[in-house]
Amino acid sequence: MNLEDNRIPDTVKTVHLTAVCGTGMGALACMLKDRGFWVTGSDQQVYPPMSDFLAQNGIRVTEGFGARNLAYRPDLVVVGNAVTRENPEAQAIRSLGLNFCSMPQAINHFVAAGKKAIVVTGTHGKTTTASLLAWILKAAGCDPSFVIGGILKNFDSNYHLGAGEHLILEGDEYDTAFFDKGPKFLHYRPAVAILTSVEFDHADIFRDLAHVRSAFDNFIKGISPGSILLAVDDDSVVDGLVAKRACRVQRYGRRRLSDWCLGKVRRTPPWTVFEVQRKGKCYHTFKTRLMGDHNLLNALSAIAVAHCLKIPRETIADGLERFAGVKRRQEIRGVKRDIIVIDDFAHHPTAVRETIRAIKPFCGGGRLIAVFEPRTNSSMRRVFQNVYPDAFGGADLVCIRRPSRLEKILPGERFSSETLVADLNRRHIAAHFFADTDPIIDFLVAQARPQDVILIMSNGGFDNIHERLLEAL
After folding, report:
1. Looking at the domain covering 331-472, what would its CATH class be?
2. Quick one: DSSP state of residue 108?
3. Which CATH class is domain 114-321?
4. How far, in whole angstroms, is CA 225 from its chain's centroid?
5. Distance of CA 318 to the CA centre of its chain
6. How far is 272 from 292, CA to CA, in rounded Å?
7. What does the pLDDT look like over 357-392, one tens digit per residue?
8. What would you report as the CA-atom Rg of the chain, rounded to the nearest whole angstrom?
9. Do the two domains 14-102 and 331-472 of this chain adopt the same fold?
10. CATH class, range 14-102
11. pLDDT mean over 89-113
């Protein structure tokens, strides 16, 4: 059997998901179970919140990969993009002659059929923007389906099987699977798409910015002439990508001549009130608890899409005001000794910079203490070594952990936390290096003062630092 000749059989009753604890894979597992399939899964790093989420939804997850997990011969195996060709379950698929597919293929087959897809793409902001759209449509009575890379607090879920005609998807540029190295978003055919930004990222699969750009170029080429593309207006790469396209392009951002433009902004913590202009005229004034200019742009794109779907502006405003946020996106995990602990997914230098800028105005009289774990395939590489110092400029105190999986990266390509700390100190930003998580907690307990905000940034579990820190405080 050739592993490249994958397919979904006509009759499927049992499904196994290899690498089930990714946010998209976890959502798919739960959707399949809700559709009546018998679902199992396996992964080698099972940690909250996804492990808890799967358990709550009755998905049996086996710790570790192995041929034994496929011994019951499921009708279909969905293979996550973290799975390599050498994975024992990938080998078992071959030896047992099992049917298999990628996550996007499964979503198209089992979820997207008959739906109008709204696909949110871009280097930054996908999860928040898609979540905003999902909640606004739900608040408007549209009952959309969605698969999103974060758990929406309004739903306490990162997926929903709705009765409405729309399906909201994060369009990820990362590769699909070991047997399909194209970006995941190329599998989707949007009725509406959003493009938030294009920057270099995913250094493990993209050579440079031109390579990233080519992936988005292919995605936009696939958007049909009758479909709408909402594209941010302050990104020169995006400008080039959307020029002279067959689809209906609308621009959003800060340019006065754009279709959708941010107007006056007023911050009165915990609220931000902002005006939106459409084609140069005042459209409406909105109110949100989301922090930061980048989130105002995310909200603006969601407002524009909702308008395209003929949702009244007052309904959009009500949904935006009642949006409770996404777990691990500027999420307040707790307050102890009048010290606020915030969890955020930021890892790319731009995301780190914008998150710090967003939270700083809401710190009141306290300091902003930034705690960062470089953990992604890009952040563990030296590709951003000279960029990160600028990203932490708004912090009052910085704690940088040594990457916990640095052995995955070739020695000559590795990011140095020690070098970043030295660079920050040369810029007169108080920064400290830590080899492990325990001393970070000890340091924060000793150094944090009432009214301080501790912002913890990582795309992983970070050794459960948030709960442990709160308990120690």
Report:
1. alpha beta
2. I
3. alpha beta
4. 28
5. 24
6. 9
7. 999 988 888 999 999 999 988 899 999 999 999 999
8. 22
9. no
10. alpha beta
11. 95
